[in-house]
Design brief:
It is a single chain. This protein is of the alpha/beta class. The protein contains 10 helices and 11 strands. α7 links the parallel β5 and β6. α1 packs parallel to α10 and α6 crosses α10.
Length: 293
């Protein structure tokens, strides 16, 4: 069994990006600039954005954090997005989700200029991805592809089962794993909360990508020998015996499933670190595209 080490691979990617940025600096070129918009004081969101800012510093990007209050109106947020769309110094920006209830998330994501949408959430970028055109791939699916690529996990002709159909992970993953090329060329089954006989389906899978958000959902008896397991789930589970009072748990019963798997991602340290690395990669791509204009 091989651990798909997202921490190591994400560090490799950051070093590669830093080398590119160092070249830009040596040529007196503008370095990539990533902005993040955060509305409110959600603890997890603040942590995520903070880690993105630190990652930018590490690779030599410029970064801007736009903090807005919890009472920000939809109009105010849309005005801020328009400012970022029109700011030539910003190469890419993200809107940290979730947003407060008074704001229509879909309307906000639609307002982002697709050329600066480094999260890959805009329908134009999603459509291009579905048509196999060059575009920004959402960071988490992009990270999973990169892990499969760098560990040379065979996907051609394999049966891939995706658990969960979110627009951020499950649905894009189901499209990407079925595309021509590597990683891809697999036969994909997309499962969700209404799927019947899910154990029957997962037990036939060569590759399982679980993005459900239910701790320890995938048990050993649901997995065949030598399956490849990608665990996207990340849930805080209360644990009084732990110093923090909780543990971070994935969708997969790691202890038991890992005994049967050929490759598996740990939680934490698997898919999570890859997400930020690929966000940086998308921002570098955005800078390249703006430079060529």
């Amino acid at each position: 069994m091989t651990i798909l080490d997202g921490k190591k691979i994400s560090n490799d990617i950051k070093e590669e990006i830093k080398a590119e940025v160092d070249k830009m600096k040596a040529n007196n070129e503008k370095v990539p600039h990533l902005a993040a918009v955060i509305v409110g004081n959600d603890g997890a969101s603040l942590t995520y954005v903070g880690s993105k800012v630190r990652a930018c510093e590490r690779v030599g990007f410029e970064s801007t954090m736009v903090r807005l209050s919890n009472t920000t109106s939809e109009i105010e947020l849309l005005d801020k997005i328009e400012d970022l769309n029109n700011d030539d110094d910003i190469d890419g920006f993200i809107i940290q989700l979730p947003l407060p209830p008074q704001i229509d998330t879909q309307k906000v994501l639609m307002a982002v200029n697709p050329e600066k949408d480094v999260d890959g959430f805009h329908p134009m970028n999603f459509g291009k991805m579905a048509l196999d055109m060059s575009t920004f791939i959402p960071a988490t699916p992009f990270g999973i592809l990169e892990l499969l690529d760098r560990y040379q996990v065979d996907t051609k002709g394999k049966h891939t089962v995706v658990i969960g159909r979110s627009h951020i992970v499950g649905r894009p993953m189901s499209i990407l794993m079925g595309r021509k090329g590597f990683p891809g060329n697999s036969t994909v089954t997309l499962t969700h909360s209404h799927t019947k006989n899910i154990t029957q389906i997962t037990s036939q899978a060569d590759i399982i990508i679980s993005a459900l958000g239910v701790p320890n959902f995938l048990k050993a008896e649901m997995v065949k020998d030598d399956a490849v397991i990608i665990d996207v789930g990340i849930t805080r589970v209360t644990d009084e015996s732990h110093p923090k009072g909780y543990v971070i748990t994935g969708d997969v019963d790691f202890e038991n499933v890992s005994k049967k798997a050929s490759f598996i991602t740990p939680v934490p340290g698997g898919v999570g670190p890859m997400t930020i690395a690929m966000l940086l990669k998308n921002t570098l791509l955005a800078r390249e595209q703006h430079r060529l204009k």
